[in-house]
Design a protein that fits this description.
This protein is α/β, with parallel strands linked by helices. It contains 11 helices and 10 strands. The chain is globular, with a radius of gyration of 18 Å.
Length: 299
Protein backbone atom coordinates (compact mmCIF):
# COMPACT_ATOMS: atom_id res chain seq x y z
CA UNK A 1 0.00 0.00 0.00
CA UNK A 2 1.26 3.48 -0.89
CA UNK A 3 2.24 5.57 2.12
CA UNK A 4 0.54 8.92 1.71
CA UNK A 5 2.72 10.43 4.38
CA UNK A 6 5.82 9.73 2.28
CA UNK A 7 4.21 10.69 -1.01
CA UNK A 8 5.26 14.35 -0.90
CA UNK A 9 8.71 13.62 -2.30
CA UNK A 10 8.08 10.39 -4.18
CA UNK A 11 5.97 11.20 -7.21
CA UNK A 12 6.00 12.67 -10.69
CA UNK A 13 3.46 14.72 -12.62
CA UNK A 14 2.19 13.34 -15.91
CA UNK A 15 0.20 15.41 -18.39
CA UNK A 16 -2.64 13.28 -19.74
CA UNK A 17 -4.63 13.39 -22.98
CA UNK A 18 -7.06 15.99 -21.59
CA UNK A 19 -4.28 18.42 -20.78
CA UNK A 20 -4.35 18.29 -16.98
CA UNK A 21 -1.57 16.91 -14.80
CA UNK A 22 -1.91 13.86 -12.58
CA UNK A 23 0.27 12.56 -9.79
CA UNK A 24 1.97 9.22 -10.36
CA UNK A 25 1.84 6.83 -8.61
CA UNK A 26 -1.81 7.42 -7.77
CA UNK A 27 -3.17 6.25 -4.39
CA UNK A 28 -6.31 4.15 -4.32
CA UNK A 29 -9.71 5.62 -3.46
CA UNK A 30 -9.59 3.66 -0.18
CA UNK A 31 -6.31 5.35 0.76
CA UNK A 32 -7.67 8.76 -0.22
CA UNK A 33 -10.84 8.22 1.81
CA UNK A 34 -8.75 7.28 4.84
CA UNK A 35 -6.61 10.40 4.39
CA UNK A 36 -9.64 12.72 4.32
CA UNK A 37 -11.37 10.95 7.16
CA UNK A 38 -8.36 11.15 9.46
CA UNK A 39 -6.11 14.01 8.37
CA UNK A 40 -7.63 16.58 6.00
CA UNK A 41 -9.52 18.65 8.57
CA UNK A 42 -6.78 18.47 11.19
CA UNK A 43 -3.04 18.98 11.56
CA UNK A 44 -0.97 20.51 8.78
CA UNK A 45 -3.78 20.22 6.23
CA UNK A 46 -6.41 22.06 8.29
CA UNK A 47 -6.10 25.38 6.47
CA UNK A 48 -4.76 24.09 3.17
CA UNK A 49 -7.85 25.34 1.36
CA UNK A 50 -11.25 26.82 2.10
CA UNK A 51 -12.73 23.59 3.46
CA UNK A 52 -12.03 24.07 7.16
CA UNK A 53 -14.91 25.12 9.40
CA UNK A 54 -12.81 27.84 11.00
CA UNK A 55 -12.01 29.50 7.66
CA UNK A 56 -15.61 29.44 6.47
CA UNK A 57 -17.01 30.79 9.75
CA UNK A 58 -14.42 33.57 10.02
CA UNK A 59 -15.08 34.72 6.44
CA UNK A 60 -18.83 34.10 6.52
CA UNK A 61 -19.78 37.15 4.43
CA UNK A 62 -17.17 36.31 1.82
CA UNK A 63 -18.40 32.73 1.42
CA UNK A 64 -22.04 33.74 1.36
CA UNK A 65 -21.22 36.08 -1.51
CA UNK A 66 -19.63 33.18 -3.33
CA UNK A 67 -22.63 30.91 -2.73
CA UNK A 68 -24.99 33.67 -3.84
CA UNK A 69 -23.06 33.88 -7.12
CA UNK A 70 -23.47 30.14 -7.59
CA UNK A 71 -27.20 30.36 -6.91
CA UNK A 72 -27.61 33.22 -9.40
CA UNK A 73 -25.78 31.18 -12.01
CA UNK A 74 -28.29 28.35 -11.46
CA UNK A 75 -31.03 30.85 -12.31
CA UNK A 76 -29.11 32.14 -15.33
CA UNK A 77 -28.90 28.63 -16.76
CA UNK A 78 -32.33 27.28 -15.79
CA UNK A 79 -34.24 30.63 -15.64
CA UNK A 80 -36.24 29.34 -12.69
CA UNK A 81 -35.80 26.64 -10.07
CA UNK A 82 -38.82 24.49 -9.29
CA UNK A 83 -40.01 24.03 -5.70
CA UNK A 84 -38.81 20.42 -5.71
CA UNK A 85 -35.27 21.14 -6.97
CA UNK A 86 -32.77 18.68 -5.50
CA UNK A 87 -29.06 19.23 -4.99
CA UNK A 88 -26.15 16.95 -4.09
CA UNK A 89 -22.88 18.35 -2.77
CA UNK A 90 -20.08 15.83 -3.20
CA UNK A 91 -17.42 16.28 -0.53
CA UNK A 92 -19.76 18.58 1.39
CA UNK A 93 -17.46 18.98 4.38
CA UNK A 94 -19.20 20.78 7.23
CA UNK A 95 -22.24 21.52 5.08
CA UNK A 96 -22.16 25.32 5.33
CA UNK A 97 -22.76 25.73 1.58
CA UNK A 98 -25.70 23.33 1.78
CA UNK A 99 -27.16 25.31 4.66
CA UNK A 100 -27.13 28.36 2.41
CA UNK A 101 -28.75 26.60 -0.55
CA UNK A 102 -31.30 24.98 1.73
CA UNK A 103 -32.30 28.48 2.86
CA UNK A 104 -33.09 29.19 -0.80
CA UNK A 105 -35.65 26.39 -0.85
CA UNK A 106 -33.48 23.70 -2.46
CA UNK A 107 -33.77 20.12 -1.15
CA UNK A 108 -30.17 19.42 -0.21
CA UNK A 109 -28.11 16.24 0.16
CA UNK A 110 -24.42 15.71 0.71
CA UNK A 111 -21.72 13.21 1.61
CA UNK A 112 -18.17 13.38 2.87
CA UNK A 113 -15.55 10.92 4.21
CA UNK A 114 -14.91 12.99 7.35
CA UNK A 115 -17.16 11.75 10.17
CA UNK A 116 -16.73 14.87 12.29
CA UNK A 117 -17.79 17.16 9.45
CA UNK A 118 -20.82 15.03 8.54
CA UNK A 119 -21.95 14.84 12.17
CA UNK A 120 -21.73 18.63 12.41
CA UNK A 121 -23.90 19.06 9.30
CA UNK A 122 -26.46 16.56 10.53
CA UNK A 123 -26.85 18.53 13.75
CA UNK A 124 -27.73 21.51 11.55
CA UNK A 125 -30.59 19.54 10.02
CA UNK A 126 -28.91 18.55 6.76
CA UNK A 127 -29.43 15.24 4.95
CA UNK A 128 -25.82 14.07 4.95
CA UNK A 129 -24.11 10.70 4.76
CA UNK A 130 -20.69 9.58 5.84
CA UNK A 131 -19.26 7.98 2.70
CA UNK A 132 -15.97 7.63 0.88
CA UNK A 133 -15.09 8.80 -2.59
CA UNK A 134 -15.14 5.42 -4.32
CA UNK A 135 -18.69 5.88 -5.63
CA UNK A 136 -20.75 8.96 -6.42
CA UNK A 137 -24.04 7.06 -6.04
CA UNK A 138 -24.44 7.30 -2.28
CA UNK A 139 -28.21 7.90 -2.11
CA UNK A 140 -29.38 4.60 -3.64
CA UNK A 141 -29.76 5.67 -7.25
CA UNK A 142 -31.46 9.00 -6.51
CA UNK A 143 -31.04 11.53 -9.33
CA UNK A 144 -30.45 15.24 -8.78
CA UNK A 145 -31.19 18.54 -10.52
CA UNK A 146 -27.91 20.05 -9.36
CA UNK A 147 -24.63 18.44 -8.33
CA UNK A 148 -21.75 20.48 -6.94
CA UNK A 149 -18.11 19.49 -6.49
CA UNK A 150 -16.40 22.40 -4.78
CA UNK A 151 -12.69 21.72 -4.33
CA UNK A 152 -13.12 17.98 -4.78
CA UNK A 153 -12.14 16.84 -8.29
CA UNK A 154 -8.48 17.70 -7.72
CA UNK A 155 -8.41 15.18 -4.85
CA UNK A 156 -9.72 12.10 -6.70
CA UNK A 157 -7.56 9.28 -8.03
CA UNK A 158 -9.74 8.84 -11.11
CA UNK A 159 -11.65 12.04 -11.97
CA UNK A 160 -12.82 10.68 -15.33
CA UNK A 161 -14.54 7.71 -13.69
CA UNK A 162 -16.06 9.98 -11.04
CA UNK A 163 -17.57 12.26 -13.70
CA UNK A 164 -18.99 9.26 -15.55
CA UNK A 165 -20.63 8.13 -12.32
CA UNK A 166 -21.97 11.61 -11.66
CA UNK A 167 -23.56 11.77 -15.09
CA UNK A 168 -25.64 8.70 -14.22
CA UNK A 169 -27.20 10.42 -11.21
CA UNK A 170 -27.95 13.72 -12.94
CA UNK A 171 -31.48 14.35 -14.13
CA UNK A 172 -32.32 15.63 -17.59
CA UNK A 173 -31.76 19.41 -17.85
CA UNK A 174 -29.57 19.31 -14.75
CA UNK A 175 -26.48 21.31 -13.76
CA UNK A 176 -23.03 20.16 -12.70
CA UNK A 177 -20.80 22.69 -10.93
CA UNK A 178 -17.08 22.00 -10.58
CA UNK A 179 -14.73 24.31 -8.68
CA UNK A 180 -11.01 23.44 -8.84
CA UNK A 181 -7.69 25.24 -8.35
CA UNK A 182 -6.41 26.82 -11.56
CA UNK A 183 -2.85 25.54 -11.47
CA UNK A 184 0.17 26.34 -13.64
CA UNK A 185 -1.53 29.57 -14.72
CA UNK A 186 0.68 32.38 -16.02
CA UNK A 187 0.46 34.55 -12.90
CA UNK A 188 1.35 31.54 -10.76
CA UNK A 189 4.36 30.42 -12.79
CA UNK A 190 5.62 33.97 -13.27
CA UNK A 191 5.40 34.62 -9.53
CA UNK A 192 7.22 31.36 -8.90
CA UNK A 193 10.05 32.38 -11.22
CA UNK A 194 10.37 35.91 -9.84
CA UNK A 195 10.73 34.69 -6.26
CA UNK A 196 12.71 31.52 -7.08
CA UNK A 197 10.06 29.31 -5.54
CA UNK A 198 9.23 25.66 -6.01
CA UNK A 199 5.83 24.64 -7.41
CA UNK A 200 4.21 25.15 -3.99
CA UNK A 201 0.75 24.31 -5.34
CA UNK A 202 1.85 20.77 -6.20
CA UNK A 203 0.98 19.06 -2.94
CA UNK A 204 0.16 15.35 -2.94
CA UNK A 205 -1.53 13.55 -1.31
CA UNK A 206 -3.80 16.56 -0.89
CA UNK A 207 -4.04 17.36 -4.60
CA UNK A 208 -3.64 14.61 -7.18
CA UNK A 209 -4.91 16.47 -10.27
CA UNK A 210 -3.97 19.92 -11.59
CA UNK A 211 -6.45 21.60 -13.90
CA UNK A 212 -6.76 24.74 -15.98
CA UNK A 213 -9.88 26.19 -17.52
CA UNK A 214 -8.99 24.72 -20.90
CA UNK A 215 -8.18 21.23 -19.64
CA UNK A 216 -11.33 20.98 -17.52
CA UNK A 217 -13.50 22.15 -20.41
CA UNK A 218 -11.82 19.60 -22.68
CA UNK A 219 -12.50 16.81 -20.19
CA UNK A 220 -16.15 17.76 -19.73
CA UNK A 221 -16.78 18.05 -23.46
CA UNK A 222 -15.15 14.65 -24.02
CA UNK A 223 -17.66 13.22 -21.51
CA UNK A 224 -20.58 14.85 -23.41
CA UNK A 225 -21.23 17.78 -21.13
CA UNK A 226 -22.08 21.19 -22.53
CA UNK A 227 -20.21 24.00 -20.78
CA UNK A 228 -22.52 26.90 -19.95
CA UNK A 229 -20.47 29.22 -17.74
CA UNK A 230 -16.77 29.54 -16.86
CA UNK A 231 -15.68 31.78 -14.00
CA UNK A 232 -12.45 32.34 -12.11
CA UNK A 233 -11.76 33.59 -8.61
CA UNK A 234 -9.50 36.41 -7.47
CA UNK A 235 -5.97 35.98 -8.95
CA UNK A 236 -4.20 35.71 -5.61
CA UNK A 237 -0.84 35.12 -7.34
CA UNK A 238 -0.99 38.71 -8.53
CA UNK A 239 0.38 39.70 -5.13
CA UNK A 240 3.58 37.84 -6.03
CA UNK A 241 3.88 40.04 -9.10
CA UNK A 242 3.55 43.08 -6.80
CA UNK A 243 6.60 41.77 -4.90
CA UNK A 244 4.64 40.32 -1.96
CA UNK A 245 5.93 36.79 -1.43
CA UNK A 246 3.04 35.39 0.60
CA UNK A 247 4.11 31.82 -0.19
CA UNK A 248 7.15 32.12 2.09
CA UNK A 249 5.49 34.33 4.71
CA UNK A 250 2.36 32.98 6.42
CA UNK A 251 1.58 36.33 8.06
CA UNK A 252 1.79 38.10 4.71
CA UNK A 253 -0.37 35.37 3.19
CA UNK A 254 -3.15 36.11 5.67
CA UNK A 255 -2.87 39.82 4.90
CA UNK A 256 -3.13 39.16 1.15
CA UNK A 257 -6.16 36.96 1.72
CA UNK A 258 -7.81 39.73 3.73
CA UNK A 259 -7.22 42.17 0.86
CA UNK A 260 -8.79 39.70 -1.54
CA UNK A 261 -11.82 39.38 0.73
CA UNK A 262 -12.16 43.17 1.01
CA UNK A 263 -11.90 43.51 -2.78
CA UNK A 264 -14.99 41.36 -3.24
CA UNK A 265 -16.94 42.61 -0.23
CA UNK A 266 -16.49 46.27 -1.16
CA UNK A 267 -17.68 45.68 -4.71
CA UNK A 268 -20.73 43.76 -3.48
CA UNK A 269 -21.59 46.44 -0.90
CA UNK A 270 -21.50 49.06 -3.65
CA UNK A 271 -23.88 47.04 -5.83
CA UNK A 272 -21.16 45.95 -8.24
CA UNK A 273 -21.67 42.18 -8.05
CA UNK A 274 -22.32 42.01 -11.80
CA UNK A 275 -19.05 43.81 -12.50
CA UNK A 276 -17.24 41.33 -10.25
CA UNK A 277 -18.87 38.38 -12.02
CA UNK A 278 -17.93 39.73 -15.48
CA UNK A 279 -14.38 40.37 -14.29
CA UNK A 280 -14.03 36.76 -13.12
CA UNK A 281 -15.52 35.41 -16.36
CA UNK A 282 -12.98 37.44 -18.34
CA UNK A 283 -10.16 36.05 -16.21
CA UNK A 284 -11.39 32.51 -16.84
CA UNK A 285 -11.19 33.07 -20.58
CA UNK A 286 -7.51 33.92 -20.08
CA UNK A 287 -6.89 30.86 -17.88
CA UNK A 288 -6.19 33.22 -14.98
CA UNK A 289 -7.57 33.32 -11.44
CA UNK A 290 -6.79 31.15 -8.42
CA UNK A 291 -9.81 28.93 -8.95
CA UNK A 292 -11.83 27.90 -12.01
CA UNK A 293 -15.56 27.24 -11.66
CA UNK A 294 -17.39 25.56 -14.52
CA UNK A 295 -21.13 25.06 -14.90
CA UNK A 296 -22.10 22.33 -17.36
CA UNK A 297 -25.16 20.34 -18.39
CA UNK A 298 -25.27 16.76 -19.67
CA UNK A 299 -26.05 16.44 -23.38
Amino acid sequence: MLSLGRMKNNFELIKNEYGFYQVSPTPSEEEITKFYAEEFYTGEYKNFNDSSLEVQVNDKEFFQGRWQDIYENFIEIKKKLSKDTTMLDIGCGWGLALQYFQSKGIECYGFDPATEAVDYGKKKGLNLKHAGLQSMDVFSGKKFDIITMLNVLEHLSNPVLALRQIKKILKKDSILVIDVPNDFNDFQTTGRNIHNLKDWWVAPPNHLNYFSRDSLVKLLEYLDFEVKICEASFPLEMFLLFGENYVSDEKLGKACHKKRVLFEENLRKQGKSKVLKNFYRSLANLNLGRQIVIYATPK
